[in-house]
Amino acid sequence: MAVTLPLGAVEATLLAGVRFAAFLVIAPPFAQRGIPSMVKLTLAFGLALAVAPRLDQEPASSTGAFVAALVLQAVAGAGLGFLVALVFSAVQAAGGLIDLFGGFQLATAFDPMSMTSGAPFARLYQFAALVLLFASDGYQVVLAGLARSFDAIPLGTSPVTGALAESVATGLSQMFLSAVQIAGPLLVVLFLTDVGLGLLTRVAPALNAFALGFPLKIMVTLTLGAFAFLALGGVVRALTGDAVDTMLGVSP
């Protein structure tokens, strides 16, 4: 029994699979080393089969053109994955700000899962965001947005455009803004704590208030950080929507 497959459909599936695979290698939560590479490849191939029927299935004119299209889709997937990673890095950046102002920056440790170094709150916020993405099915929203990206960047279209560069620049500014908004209330309290300790030192220098400042700031950070941690679910939900909007906003 001979099975004949249309060349255009096979090429469209492969091109879509390359975009999905490049995206899964970079974008959270799939970029974690704890997820095996075979799982990522299988997921990319399955998603490519799902979206292939609605893609342009015109076969390439030559082998060189098809290889160039594969490279183009790899760049598109990597670029979209970087934009999503940029959006969710605001959570880790917020944790880093809390570590910096709360005095936990000296406890920096290497994370073999993400191949980065971070202090306790930065790592806590990063892992909590990843868990919430899986627990709330936020990863499905991200994958659905990636599937819809074929409308914004069709097969055979170059993703290297001014819109992509503009999205990266906007994403950087939004990342810092989101990090400050997430950690802002706690940072204000820690700043006021430093101001109070400074005033206390001027009023009663013999108390040596700064010797008590370090344990006091740790206590304030741990106490109020627990309340800030409770709002992380809403933050991840909002960032998921921002990530999808960012992907769909990139168009040639």
Automatic annotation (TrEMBL):
InterPro entries found in the cross-reference section: T3SS_IM_R
Record's keyword terms, sorted: Cell membrane, Cell projection, Cilium, Flagellum, Membrane, Transmembrane, Transmembrane helix
GO cellular component, one term: plasma membrane
Membrane topology: Multi-pass membrane protein
Compartments in which it is found: Cell membrane
UniProt main location, coarse: membrane
Entry's Gene Ontology BP terms: protein targeting
Keyword Cell wall biogenesis/degradation: no
Protein's UniProt keywords contain NAD: no
Residue spans crossing the bilayer: 12-31, 38-55, 67-91, 124-147, 182-204, 216-239
A UniProt-annotated Pfam family: Bac_export_1
PANTHER family xrefs: FLAGELLAR BIOSYNTHETIC PROTEIN FLIR, SURFACE PRESENTATION OF ANTIGENS PROTEIN SPAR
Family membership noted in the UniProt record: Belongs to the FliR/MopE/SpaR family.
Protein name (Swiss-Prot/TrEMBL): Flagellar biosynthetic protein FliR
Provenance organism: Xylanimonas oleitrophica
